[in-house]
Amino acid sequence: MLNNRLCYSFFLLFFSLVSALAQGEKTSVPLKVLLFQIEQQHDVKFNYIEDEIIVFAIVPPNKSMPLEQKIAYISKETRLQFTLIAHKYYTIYNDKKLDKPLCGFLLDAESGLGIENAVVRIDKSTVSTFTNESGYFELPKVSPNKIIIQHQGYQIFSLNPEELYVTNCPKFKLNPLTQSLQEVVTQRYLATGISRKTDGTILVKPKKFGILPGLIEPDVLQTMQQIPGIISVDETISNINVRGGTHDQNLFLWNGIRMFQTGHFFGLISAFNPSLAQTISITKNGSSAFYGESVSSLVDISSFTNSVEKTNTSIGSNLISADFYTKLKVSEKANLTLSGRRSLTDSFNSPTYQSYSDRIFQNTVITDLSTNEIVNYRSNVDFYFYDVTAQYQQKIGAKSELNMDIIAIENTLEFKQFSTDLSKKSKLEQENYGANIRWKTTWNSKSFTEIQAYFSNYDLNSYNETLENSQILEQKNTALDIGFRVKQSNQLTKNLTLHTGYQFNETGVTNFDEINTPFFSRTITNVLMTHVAVGEGIWESDNKKNYLRAGLRVNYFDKFSVILVEPRLQFNRALNDYWRIEILGEQKSQTLSQVIDLQQDFLGIEKRRWTLSDNAEIPIQKSNQVSAGMTFKNKDWLITCDNFYKKVTGITTSSQGFLNQFEFVKNAGNYTVLGTEFLVQKSFRRFYTWLSYSYNHNEYDFKDLYNGPFPNNYHITHAVSWAGIYEWQKLKLALGAKWHTGRPITTPKEYTVTEANPNIVYNNPNNYRLKDYFQVNFSASKEWSFSQKVTLQTAASVLNVFDTQNSLNRFYRVNSNTNVVESVDTYSLQVTPNFSVKVSF
């Protein structure tokens, strides 16, 4: 009996709750429909502008309510005003301040920066738009339906249209996606606009870039040197060393085009316009099987966008160069993007240019420091550089897209010497031109095909006349790379995606030397064709905690009839909400490398020339690398740690820049690196700071030259970098310091001098280290918004704030006048200020 009563009471309570919930969950109806119902019930008439009420959908009031109470209820819910103008006739109007498009801003919940290329669409319709670089959007149509916001890096967000129907354009903060292992672990790594993916890849978004010490703009090759494990032993971006490798062992791509020239001003400035790039991916290990021709890192610069964007332009200048960027929306489905940069160095001698000149031209014939005599002559240096790009993007139908890209980079130096009755001129030109065409078709949500063809041409020309005699030296280095790629992607199951592809490359290199007295001329040309098959699978568990990418790259070099199989592996597992582990591994190869025949080649400035492997004296370089790391992220803390082992075989002495007993010796060998990289980063609201540390044990092994291993020329044992960054609204300040152990050099033991051949006898190779390197840098930037479309950005920086004199390299020579061994040092940049201003509209 008691049980029956309890059951009866339970059912009464259950149905009461259901009834109450049902009453509390009345469905909202469009306001236009509700007004029509009230007109029918109360025999009244409402006059209104449809666009002013269509955004509203509300829960209807109780039908038994009087007309006046219903009107008061609707006015309270919508902020609309009702005025009785005649018997039974009402006018409905809104606040005149609300007469604007439905607009808003989407912001990153962590950084507060605008979210670009988010899709904003009206539910149950085909109406959609995209946010611009500030996160701003406007809806071309009003509707009572919900507004859905989607972006691949953020959680899906929805809002009611009346939330946009306010006086100003409201701001909405979106939370980044952190569950999927394919997404970014943190939205800020080292600086705003830089993020680290779970596979160890570093992503740089120049348009969202915050600030880094010493930088006034997001120079990609300067920025990557802030990453643990990446350093330049001579401060240039034409000699970037990733985990102990040389610069030519890094693969640099711009929209799929291989770039042979990466710097302006002979390595002090990046050759890629920072106003242009959309996404820059930097990979130290575990790269995709679709990338080859490098035994060290990958730097993939892409300016492709997913959508056709609105017209926007920027014009800027600093104390070295002026630049422009414009993206033109030529139709609803097409964009044309143009960019250019040109140096001011041949017309404006700024303190920045003078400091750069002193750094680059020291110990060369430009400054006459390579001679032992004081010659009574005058000299004039005329130098300039430029880079231009053009891109065309065309959407074709609903599934296909066509992209065409052109890039041109040039450095030109003219050096004139005068005496009483003589005048001689020397010239150095460095050029890189490239073009690319890409077609992509997305067949459905699970399959797409991408076809790409490109070419890249590099020329280095030098013409050198000496004032002391009539000798003329002419040198040329040319590299041409033509490529074709096909990639097919298929999602086989919910968890597994398969990528397959074919690649073809034809690479040719020509080296030319000619001397008039005594006459000597030589031309060496090599051509190599490579066929590549690629297969890569990506698997991710349902709970998103396990991610595996495994690939195989099969290279066939037809000239040598050699097949090289290169496996790639990337595994990541989330242990819990804070800890992740990753294991990366790869085998890679490359046939192109840079060598130095003589230290004074090309006026002593650009001494490296490209050469192609012959699989004999110049072997195919091969690398094996494996790393294991952990990442910790909790609230405002980020900690990363990576341990790695790397071995590269097939290197030559000519490619390593020896200035000791091996300078004129040609031999093949290998190097091995064992290292650790560590980063800790902490945010304190507007202020954040980070500290990184790298340890490398890097040794050569040239069995035919030296009995046993010896330190690598790029062996930097310890490297520490620190930065403190403050960001408040549009003001950004950054102070940082770099310290690392000195570079290895070889000291002389004794020397012998004969009338014909002075000779230095050296100690064991790389037996000594230069003094430790230390530098403090500062940057500041401020942005002013004059309207929603017009902004002014200013920035200032000081490199080497304390004007510390750091010796970057040292070599020894015999003074022919005194027969004494003397040392010649290459020093770092002196204190170097810079300032930039940019207007965007």
Summing up helix and strand content along with how strands pair, one would put the structural category as mainly beta
Helix content: under 10%
Number of strands: 54
Beta-strand content bin: over 45%
Describe the largest sheet: 22 strands, antiparallel, barrel
Mean residue pLDDT: 85
Distance between the termini: 81 Å
The total count of helices amounts to 6
Shape: elongated
Over all CA atoms, what is the radius of gyration? 32 Å
Uncertain spans: 1-25, 178-186, 368-375
What features would you describe in this structure?
With 841 residues, the chain is mainly beta. Helices cover 8% and strands 54% of the residues. The protein has 6 helices and 54 strands. The chain has a 22-stranded antiparallel β-barrel. Strands 13-14-15-22-23-18-19 form a 7-stranded mixed sheet, with no helix packed on it. The chain has a 4-stranded antiparallel sheet with strand order 8-7-10-11, with no helix packed on it. A hairpin with a 6-residue loop joins strand 30 and strand 31. The longest helix has 23 residues. The radius of gyration is 32 Å and the shape is elongated. 38% of the residues are buried. The N terminus is likely disordered.
